[in-house]
Each structure stands twice: as structure tokens, then as C-alpha cells.
Amino acid sequence: MDDPEVIEISSGESDAEISIDRRAILQPVISRVVDALGGYEGGTYRMGDEVNGCLKDLKKLWRKDDTDDERTVARIFWETRVLSNDLIPILLETAGKGLVEDKRAIACADLMTAMTWPIDMAEELKELDDELDKGTDYTQLLESHLHYKVALLKPGVMQALFGIVLPPLAKAPKERKERDGQIVNVVLHLVRNLAFIKDLPYNTHLSADQAEFSSLQSKLIRTLSDTHILQLLLTIAANTNNDPLLNSWNTLVLEIFYLLFRGVKPATLSHDQAKQPTETLQRLLAVEERTRRELARKTNSRHSRFGTTIAVKLNPNKKARPAVENDNGNEADSEVAPSSSRSFILHRQQAISSESGSIMDITKRQMTKKGNKVDEMAREDHLSVEARVVLQHLAIEFTEACFNRKFTSLDVFHPPHLHPVSPAFLSALLKDIRSERAKITEKDNLRLLFVTKWFLEFFLSMRARENAQGSKGRWKFGLIADVTERTWIIWVLKRMREAVEEKPKLWTELQTGIECLTQLLLLIDMMSSADITDPNLKEAADVLQQQLIYNGEVLDIAFESLRSYKPGTQSLVYLDSSVYLAYALLKMLEKWSKSKGGDMYVRKRKAKKRKSIKGMGEEDGIPDVEEEPAEEEEVVHETMFTFEAFEMKFAHADITHTLLTYLARYKDFSSPENMRRVVSLMHRQAVRAKAEGLFFKVSALNLFKTILADQKSFPRDQPYKDLVNLITFILRQFFKALAEEPLLAVEAFFPKNRGHWKQFSSWEPEKSEKERKTVEGTRFPPDVEVKKGYSWSDQLGITIASLVESGEVELVHWTKDILTVVIAQRQRIIDETDSQDRTISDDDDDSDAQAAKALRLKGPSNEAMAKIKDYLRAFEPDADELEWYVPASVVPADLRSTLTVIDQFLTTPIDLEGRKASELLGKKRRRRRRRSPSPESGDDSVLDDDEPRRKKKEKKKKEKQEYKSAQFIEDSDEEYGDIEAFLEKEKVMREKAQRAAEAAGVQITNMKGQGTKKRRMKPGNDSRNKRHKSDHAAKVAGPEGPDGDTGEESGDNASAADEPSNPSPSLPRPKPRPLGRRLSPNPTDQTFSDISDNDEPPPAATMIGMASKRNRLVISDEDDD
Predict the structure, then answer these.
(1) What is the mean pLDDT of residues 1039-1045?
(2) Would you place residue 134 in the very low, low, confident or very high pLDDT band (cuts 50, 70, 90)?
(3) 803-811, long-range: CB within 8 Å, 24+ apart, which pairs?
(4) Residues 653/751, Cβ–Cβ less than 8 Å
(5) In which band, very low, low, confident or very high, does the pLDDT at 63 lie, cut at 50, 70 and 90?
(6) Are 335 and 357 in contact (CB under 8 A)?
(7) Are 548 and 528 in contact (CB under 8 A)?
(8) pLDDT averaged over the chain?
(9) Rounded CA separation 29/31 (Å)
């Protein structure tokens, strides 16, 4: 057909769809509508008669792109320049001149919002068809957005748009209509679209018009400030009147703040912006100077134009093997051994000074590596100083007015008596997110995390700057107290947990959550610092730390974020955030453990699956009720938390690989803090955890080699010095381990996972309780003793001779010095005490004075001995040596005699008849000492292993003096009055026992000095002889046995022992015959020694003799036979 208006539709055998040219159809229609809008006449824009209808037609045509991947209508709008040539002039003619409620102005704003709507390139590319949309290009659409942004930032445009917003907001809430909220919503979305458009990167080679596209964001921020749109955003965020209309736009305001602040770092806004250009210039000059010095070290000399040819030989000292001759003598058949010394020719002058291997690597084929993502969340905007000042004021006003709840006073932290006047901006958003409102999208969670993290970091920077300047009072913790609530922390951890559980994992949201959690930890650390004097703040910080540790998720996130990093999968900012989180968490936990030091528990959740009920088979029939699948039941376990164990957990091969990957980018570090964090984490692994074997890898050693080669170009900051020292330590440990295990050179090519690093490190496994006791028992070498057969003086002489032979005479002199000091101290005490007694005794009779002098000849008085204390040598609790002391019971006379003997043996050594003194010495066997709890101390006598050894010794000595010595040791110098009382009491007891025996009709000749145990009949043994002997002993003691002295109590309980016990008639056992036991010298505390079952009791006469001998009073220590 010749008529172009007629479209021919035909069907054929081919099933291919007929392509329709949408541009050919839509372009004439759009052009006619745009021409009908109006035009310029004499420099003034004249609107057409049907401009309102034309604007509606353009909006209908715009909706045609909803089903078009090519965006045909958007491309035609850009080609016709409808926004800059028609829509903006119509807006200025209506709203710009006061007609803010004109429908034409509102329609223009609606079209502008639609034309500048952000293009999600990732989603658009996913929807493209590989065949039909092969030639689709979005660069034209992105370029059109830049031109739209330039046109909308012309003077008067944003002011006209702000005028459209005011009438709906000026109405009372009851007078507003739905259209009023839609008008404000359209203008706010237009502001959001302009903030979303990204500037072009700076390029000095572009023209002036193109350079304008690199500073549009700064111009937008200044325009929003001049037109008071930023104040409107703060009013909506504050929402002091709890207006539901303003609350419906909080997500939109959140996105605008996110787009404005994501291009600038909080730390840069906390400084004086007037000095920022100078600081930036100095930083860039320093980087340039460092780069220039690095290039100067490797640059060619002026002789390089003559060329360089260098021959490099491998194994030059190795001789070639001789040729192998043929047995037939044929030289032609002989094989020439290949030489192992090969030559390589290099044509670079760097090979003269640098290693040849690095020059050879240049010529090798480089493998393509997957590029690392820099940051998927934030971007870098090159803002002007004026724009930065505007953002700084905006951040300060938002922190003070919108971040936290509004109290009547912000001078306190969580005031219990004040109720919030209005909810905070972030709290209202969190409430909407948890309520799952329709306006909430998935990206709102991400934006809320980022904005919270950004303003927390800004607050901490401003507070640090305020403390540095010495002015306090403005940046109080009450401004951000809402973020420390339990609901906030739970929500942050929940979002991070869901980001990990998603398939694929949401690394961007996880990165933002890690950054937000890091700032929260820094906030808690600042709240618990020593500069804070408010006890409420310190208490709140302690509670937050305790809850975070007990929850356990923060500890797991810090560990997993470092362990699961893979280059290319996550961004570089994710790596930096993970390192920062681990550094801040370990620093806070170390500080907390040192200050608190108490026991803490961590909650571990494990999913325990319930047993699923097996379904019935076909033969069993169909159940009436459908069975629900078994749900997982969470089981919570609490484990003890110790900082050392958690720090040891970071000694992991994957974490080491992540840290080395981060360290390899040391040239890109923007601050010494980056180096400080990674060096601190590596130090905890290599030194604190003793896991230096994790770094014994070829890749790590090669990185260390590169760093040591570039250390001359490092800044002079302390973190870089610490890095060099740490690398030196690791290399020293490596070569030390290599000398002990040469196969480590082969193991360096393999990974050190699954604990393989432990065999090459100084790490030692934790000892069990049994091994720990063994180590404590063998901590010190065993005592040395002289072999038997020598007197005390000979033993001392042999010991001194042994020390002289081994060249340790100074130990003997050291002992003499101690004895001299002790003698002088105790003699002074004795002289001072006894001199007072001597002064008093001069007034008495001569007989009394002579008696007192006689007593003094025997030794010091009891009063003087009571004042003498044990002489303790200076002792350190952590020292690896025993504690020596001189007991208080040793008098100065004995010490002088010992000192005299030592001097004699030093002057005249003992004669050993040619033998060495060391041959007469032997090791003393260790005996296991059992300590039974004292009657008064009970279970408290068992001391913990953590108690200092000095306290254990003092308690043991006190226990021995008070309880054990008082029971068995009698003072030989005791006065005779106590002995007479004892003998008198014994006489009364014997008479009482005699009367009890006469009342029973039995005559007692004497009591046995030793009792026997009740013996049992053993099968297969002939016990007639033993029974006969026991009967004989029973006849001597009497049929009724001894009196009340046989029990553990005194004689008042004799009736219990006098009654014979009747044996059971069912068991053929002999009758028990209780025998008397020997008397104890002490009537109050008696001891009993029982005869074993196999011992025979001695005759009665012998027993009496033994009793008389053992009950003899010992007056002198020398008369002990």
C-alpha cells in the first residue's frame, strides 16, 4: 500500500513477531504537543491557550514508558528539550510570580519529577532481553539528567517550587485534603531526584561547560539552603506537633539526608571548614612528595641512554657434571651432561641495583585479576567550602533537634522523671519499620543504618574536638541517648543477621551494620572513659557492655566478618569496616576485663530440631488433621567468657589472610590509624596469642620483604615503626623455627589452617587439672640431703664443702649475713625486754634477784620470746624461688653456735678422705602432704590455687600453731603447778574407775596401756592361738574392760564402755572384748593408737611397763631416751 497511515497486518508461516517502531509513532505526536505549549516572542515566553491540556497529554505520553525498556518517550523529551525550553518558563510565569496554587505550575512540577526520576542501572540491565535489547544505551538518559539538574538550579526555579509547597502546609490539619499532601510529596521527590544525580568526576581537560557538571552537588546544596528547603526538611524531621502528614514523609526526608551526607565524611565536617582547603593541599603535596621520592629511588641514571645488558647466571658456583663416556670408546655416542648454571640476559638498568628476579617478573605474562569494589554505599563528592559549611550547620541542627527525643532538659542521660514531648526522627522511622508500614521499603533499612552511623561518628568527632579545645557543655550524651536503647541495638543486630542469612548475602547492608555497630562501641567506650564524672553515664556504659558481651552476637559478627572476607566479593570499605570493628571491640573488651575482672557469661544459641513425626502409610489410612512440620527449637547455653580465650579465637588462618590482604594496601592508607588497627590485630595474633606460625607462608613472607624494602619511604608515625618491629619479630621466629625444623621451608607453600600452625609456633596447649597439679608440685627442684650416717655438724660441713666445690661460696656468705642480722635483731629485743625486768628486780630481796638471774642463764624470758617474730626474707610473689625464713623459736644462742660452725668449716674444711662432697649428697624424696580441714575453719581451709603463696604459708603456720601444736606438744619449761593438777586429776579418775569396778563385783589390778581393735573371723585362717592370747589379755584387764578412759571423752562417760556388746546370734562371730587403751599425757586431748588385726597384743606386764615409760614427764629436750 502506498498510504503510509495504513499498517498492513499479515500472517505467515514464520512465528517471528513484527517489530513496531515506537519512535516513528510517538515522535510526531510528542512534537505537536510540545509546540502547543507555547514559545518565546521578543525574549518573553508566551503560553499557549491549551497549555494545561498539553501538560496533561505529556503526562499521559510519559506513562507509555512503563512498558518500554528503551525509554522512547524519555529520549524524545530530551531531544525536544521540553524541560528547559517550556516547563521551566511556564513554572516561572506561574509560581514564580506568586501563582503558587496554579494548576499549570503543579503540572510542571509533576512532569519535572517524572523526567528526573533516578534510573537504577542494575535493575534496568537485568530486565533487558539479550536479543531484542542488544543495542540499548543508557548513557544518553544519564546525560539528560545532568542537563536537567543544571536547568533546575537556575535562579528562581527552586524558589518557585518552594512556593508551591507552602499553601498546603499552611492549612490546618482538619482543612487539608488529599491533594495537598500529594503536592508536597511531588516537590520533595523532585528534591530527592536532584540529590540522587551524581556529578561527573573532575577533569581538567574538559571545557568550561563540561566542568560545570563536576560541581552541581555543591550548587544544589547552596540553593537548597538559600531557598530554605533544608529548614523545611528539618521541620518535617522534628515534627514537634506529631503531625501525621509530616510523619508520612519521614522516609523521603531520610533518603534526602542520606543522599546529601553520603558524599562527605563526618570527620571532615567536624573541623573548621575555612582551613580545610589548606589541609587538603598539604595532604596532596605530601602524597606527591612521597611518590616523587619513591620514583627517584628507582629512576634511571643519565647513562641509561647508552643501554644496559646484564648476564645473570643461576647457580654460578655449582660445577657441571663430567660427560658420560661410552663403554665402546666412541666419542660420538658419549652424552654431555647438561649444565645447571644457565645464563639470562637482562636489558634493564634496574637489574644492577635491584634483584634480578623482580626484573624477570616484569617480562612475565600478567594474569588478569578480578577488580576490587571500592564502596557500594557511599561516594566521594568534591564539595566546595560553602557547601561544606552548609552541611556542617545542617548536621549540627539535626543532631541537636531531630536525632533524639525531645525532653524538657537534655542535661541528663535518660531522665526517669521526664517524658518525651515528641518522638525522635529515627525512633519514628524505627517504629514504622517494625510495624511494616506500606511506605517502608527494603532500602529504608539500609539508609537508616547509614544515617545513624554517620551522625554517631559526627557526634563523636565534635565531642572529641570540644574536649581538645577545653570547652564543654554543648555536646552531651543526651543528644544521642536514643540510639543506646535496647530496641535499637536489637534491631541493628537483627538486620545484620538477616543480611547474612539471605541468599545471596547482602554484603552492603552488612557493611553498613558493621559500621553502625563500630560507632556504637566507640560511643560506649567514650561513656566509660576516665574523663566522665557522671556516675549514671558510667553505670549505663557498664550495663551496655555487659549486655553486648552476654548477647554474644557482636562477638560472632566481629569474628565472622574478618574470617569470611574474599577479595572481589566484598568491597574494600567492607574490609576496612571489619578491621575497625575487630580493633574497637578487642580494645573495649581488654579495657573492660582489666577494670572489672569479674566472671562473665556469653549466651550461645543452638538450633535443636524436634523429631519429626513419621507420616502414616497408605495402609494406615489418611489422617484427619494435616500434621504441621516440626519447628526448630532454640537451645540457649551460657559459657564463661574470658578475654584471653576470645583473643585466642582470632588466631585463625582465614583472619590472618584477611589482615595480610588489608596490609598489602598500605600505600593506599589515608591515615596512620589504618596502619595502627591492622598492626594491633596482627600483634594480638603473633605475640599475645603466640600464633606466629600463621604468618609462615610464602605470600606473607613476600609481603614482608616488600614492606621492609619500602620502609625508608614510610611516614614517621609510630604505627609504621611498630609494623617494622612486628615484621622483624615474625621473621626472627621464622628463621628460628626453620633452624629447628628444615622442612618448614616446604610447609611454607601450604596453608596453615586446621591448627597446623601450632607446631611451628610458641603456642602451648592448655594443661589439664592433673597436669597443672603436677607442674605445681615440681615447680622447684627437690631438696638435697646428706646421706645417712653423719652428725648434724658433719652434714653442715659437707654442705658447705659442696657449695665451695661448685663455686657458690657467695651463698654461704649470704647465709652468714642473714644470721648476723637476725642475731642482732633478736638480741636487741631480748636486751630491751629483760633489762626492764632487771630494773624491777633490784628492789626485791637478794634471794629473788638470784633466782631471776638463774632463770636468765637458761635463756630469754617468755615475754621476750613472744616479741620475737619470724624473720622473713624479702620475697616477690611472682618470683620463681622459694620463701626462706628464720623461725621465731630459735634463740640467738643457737644461731651464734650455727654461725660459729659455719665459720670453722670455711676456715678449716671438713676432711672427706679424698672424696668429693657432691658424692655424699642425694635428692630428698617428695612426699605428698595431706591437709585435713581444721575443726574451726571447715571448708575454708582449702585455699584456691589463685591465692598468693605467702597467704597460704601464713594460714598453714597459724593453723599448725593453734590446733596441731597445742594438741601434742607440751612445753618442757612449764611450771610444776600444771603437772600437779594433772596428777591430781588422774588420781580422781582412777578412784572413780575403782569404785565402778567394785560396784560391778570385779577387781582391777591395772589398766592396759594400749587397746586393740575388734577382730573379725577370716575364713581359712587358724585363729585359735590368737583367740587364746586375746582371752589371756582379757583376763588381765577384767571381764568388763576398762573404765571411761577408753572413749574419746573423759571418765564421765564410762558407763558406755563398761557394758559388753552382745553379738548377733545369726553370725558366728566371737564376742567383742574391748581392751583398755593407754593413757594420754594430756587429759583434755587424748590420742589413740590401735593395734592392727594381724598384731598380737603384748602381755599385761609388758603393757604396764610400756605405759609407765610412755607416761614419764620429760623435763629437758636432751633427756629423750
Answers:
(1) 40
(2) low
(3) 804/909, 804/917, 805/916, 805/917, 805/918, 806/918
(4) yes
(5) very high
(6) no
(7) no
(8) 74
(9) 5
